[in-house]
Every structure is written in structure tokens, then in C-alpha cells.
Amino acid sequence: MRKKERRKEKMQIKRDHITILLLCAISGVIDVLGYIGLSHVFTANMTGNIVLLGIGIGDARQVVLSNAALALVGFIIGIVATVFIQRKSGKSRSILTWEFILFLLSAAVILLMPASGTVSSIILLILSTAMGMQTIAGRNLKIAGLSSTVLTSTLAAFIEGLVGAMQKNAQKLSLDTYLRGGAILLYLLGAAAGSLSERLIGLHTIWIGVALLALVLLLQRKKTIA
User: Fold this and answer.
1) Residue 52: which residues within 8 A CB-CB, separation 6 or more?
2) Does the pLDDT at position 125 exceed 90?
3) What is the pLDDT of residue 5?
4) pLDDT at residue 222 greater than cutoff 70
5) CB-based contacts of 138: which residues, under 8 Å, 6+ apart?
6) Mean pLDDT over all residues of the chain?
7) What percent of the chain lies above the pLDDT cut of 70?
8) Given 66, 124, 137, 187, which is the most exposed site by the fewest CB atoms within 10 A?
9) DSSP 204
């Protein structure tokens, strides 16, 4: 019985590891969609948006200022909404389900409405809200201190792990170091895929995010059933 429980626990941990890596890939795709396809601001990387907001203020660039502010507002709305979702259900899957709904809403807007400044702003707001939700959902997994939308601290911890292993002459890197490296790689690959797709199919690149998030929800559903 204990062996069976341990096996289930190991499988759940593996699913969570795959989940956080897929969420990083989603962030890469959606960040590129926001920056190239929409308004030259990020949907997930709020550090970048704060810098862009500062640039807009300093140079009096109204477009940059308004777009960066809109993305930040959307992200904050996502965080606030997640607080209320967690009161009813603390599971990451519940949060990710709402993110999936917002992705589908964005895809519907893209399909049904012609691209314009107003439509781009609506999509930017929805996707930034979704990424705010994903940030909390990813953090709730509590894996190696990883965030699915912020890589600065992840990169620092990854390099620290590499240097630490070299100093100790360790034959193997720690699992946390591998996960952090994987998160960086998946974010990069997601951004590359998003960039290529945006050139080919434009805003319909959102469907890559939809597909990846559907896979995440499937993994989390198996975890719940187990």
C-alpha cells in the first residue's frame, strides 16, 4: 500500500514538473504575441512593462504609456481574480481553467473581429489578465522556486546552481537546477515558436497557447483523479 502511494506521489510530482515547464512555454508564446502581434508590450513579463511604462513617462510616448499601463492593469486584475478563485478552490487547476477560458475568449475575439487598435487593446487586457492568473497558479505548485512568468530570479538561481556544482566537483546537478534550466529553455522555445507562428498566421498564434494549456489541464486532471 505504501509503495502504491509513493508511486502515485512520484507521478504527481512528475506531472507538476511537466506542468511548470509547459506554463513557461505558454508564457513565451503569449509574451511574443503581445509584443509583436499586439501593442509592443508584454503580457507576462511585467518587469519589462514597468520599464516600458517608465520610458513612456520619461519620453511622453502616449502609445507606449497607455499600452504598458493596460497590460499592468490586466495582470493586476488577474491576480485579484485569482485571490477570489482560491477562496473557493485552492487548486491550481481551477485557476488554470479560468485562464483557459480567457484564452478561448481571446481566440474568439481574434476570429470574429477585424484587427484594430481597440480590438488589440481588448485582447491585450484579456491575455494579461490570464497571465496574472497563471503566475499564481505556477507559484502554487511550489517547484524549485519557479515562476512561469518571471525568469530573472530563475536565471540567477540556475547559474548559482551550476557554479555551486562546479565548486563541489559534483558529478550531477541537482533536480532544481535542471528544472530551472528547463524553464529558461522552454520559455525561449515558446518565444521562438510564437515569433515564427506570428509571422505565418498572425494573432491566430493564440491557438498554440490554447493547445498547450489544454495539455496542462489534462495533466492536472490526471493528478486529481489519481
Assistant:
1) 40, 41, 42, 64, 67, 68
2) yes
3) 76
4) no
5) 20, 23, 92, 146, 147, 148, 149
6) 90
7) 97
8) 66
9) G
Query: What residue spans of 147-174 are helical by DSSP H?
Result: 152-167
User: Distance between CA atoms of 173 and 124, rounded to whole angstroms?
Assistant: 39
Rounded mean pLDDT, 36-49: 91
39, 67 Cβ separation under 8 angstroms? yes
Characterize 36-63 residue by residue with b for buried, 16 or more Cβ atoms within 10 angstroms of its Cβ, and e for exposed.
bbbbebbbbbbeebeebbeebeeeeeee
Closest of 99, 172, 110, 184 to residue 146, by C-alpha: 184
Q: Which DSSP state fits 35?
A: I
Examine the pLDDT at 214 and tell me if it is beyond 70. yes
